[in-house]
Amino acid sequence: MNLLFIILNIVALLLLVGVLIIMQKKHVSFSKRVFTALGLGILLGLILNIAYGVDSEVLAETVPWYNLIGTGYVKLLQMIVMPLVFISILGAFTKITIGKNFGKMAAIILSFLIGTTAIAAVIGISSAALFDLNAEQIIQGDAETERAEYYEGRSAEVADKALPDQMLDLLPANPFLDFTGARPTSTIGVVIFAAFLGFAYLGLARKEKETAAIIKTGIDAVYKLIMRVVTLVLRLTPYGILAIIARTVATSDFGAIYNLGKFVLASYVALAVVFAIHLLIITLSGLNPITYVKKAAEPLIFAFTSRSSAGTLPININAQTTKMGVSEGVANFSGSFGLSIGQNGCAGIYPAMLAFMIAPSAGINPLDPMFILTVVAVVAISSFGVAGVGGGATFAAILVLSALNLPVALAGLLVSVEPLIDMGRTAVNVSGSMTAGVATAKITGELDKDLYNTPLSKIVTEEA
């Protein structure tokens, strides 16, 4: 009987995939297909959740089949992340403007990423105070207790991680290892390696113009090939979102979410405020924030459903360059740096909220101004090197709590609602990197305002 139900669940997903295929053949816009996939996925997930229950054997055996589409799509995105980052950064150096603006551009992007993370930490503390959160409110089940013990063990591994060591971790001792994504900071390592090659190209362009011209031709050819692969993968976005959100909703423990509802609500209030600050930055840059929301919708939706900043990178860069008018150099640097530095949701809000909640148990007044300043400073510094995949927030929390000499057990006590909160955190992370890209491009004069202000309906992109 279970096999029959599993087959029916698979057929239901395939039928919805068929609906999206029909929409594509009828030339329904890409944005509408993405939103339709999101709605259908939520509906299917709710039906499966209600029909079988979170812990059912049928659902457990159905999920791997849904992963063929959902996780398969994320893996394809992750497949092109490193080649895209490398060739895009290197290719940006073949355009003369980046040689002049590189230092200024990188400094502005990093300032936005780190600055907004510090602000996010203040907002996280404020939200925790507003909702009067504390560690005693966390209900500990078997899963929570097991995770708490695990993270207490891990705290010893990161407690002695000094800032110089964190900075050294960013450097690519073996760039070929970083191309495999073996380290949490691999993306930044690839960026640094590509930047060195880029500066080497600029040197050749001054001294050996014929050699530089040959190199530029090769870089441009590889760039076009990689971008073609990106286009092919992005066309699968609606199907990936459908399967991912259906799986996520179907396997969500709504009972646990209800028990920890206060923390979930406080988290999303903080995330909403940080997103509002992103819109404020866009507004202060002299740009329409509503336009930003419309053009950032697709990468933000995918970040929300996939919980992977790294997987969202190709969609992030594509939205910045083809819809918002950000230059390729700025878009690639902001997107790439945003994977491991200054993640507003994972490295900003979350660790700060946990520090506020657990401080009383260590005899510390969480509203003490010096404690708050210390938390903000530690959060900003610790935001270097946070992995751009699910679990990065927990790693950031361990770093912050360890640096503050606070018990790290709480980092593992929210396992029941971690996926739900991580969805919002990831979307805010991606929004932070996109905001940094758009604002930096505006400041450095590398933003095509006409393209930014062009309605989406008049922008024809290949992935559509």
Detailed description of the structure:
By secondary structure, this protein is mostly helical. The chain is 77% helix and 0% strand. The chain has 20 helices and no strands. α4 crosses α19.
Q: What's the gyration radius in Å?
A: 22 Å
Helix content: over 70%
What structural class do helix, strand and pairing data support? mainly alpha
**Major sheet attributes:** none
Number of strands: 0
What string gives the helices and strands in order?
A: HHHHHHHHHHHHHHHHHHHH
Mean pLDDT: 83
Overall, the morphology is globular
Number of helices: 20
Could you give the distance between the termini?
41 Å
Low-pLDDT runs: 141-145
> How much strand content do the residues show?
under 5%
Keywords:
single chain; mainly alpha; Na:dicarbo_symporter_sf; 464 residues; amino-acid transport; L-cystine uptake protein TcyP
Can I get a quick summary?
This protein is mainly alpha-helical. Helices cover 77% and strands 0% of the residues.
Give me the secondary-structure topology.
Layout: H1 2-25, H2 30-52, H3 57-93, H4 96-130, H5 142-158, H6 163-168, H7 175-178, H8 186-207, H9 209-234, H10 237-250, H11 254-259, H12 261-284, H13 289-306, H14 309-322, H15 328-340, H16 344-358, H17 369-382, H18 392-403, H19 418-444, H20 449-453
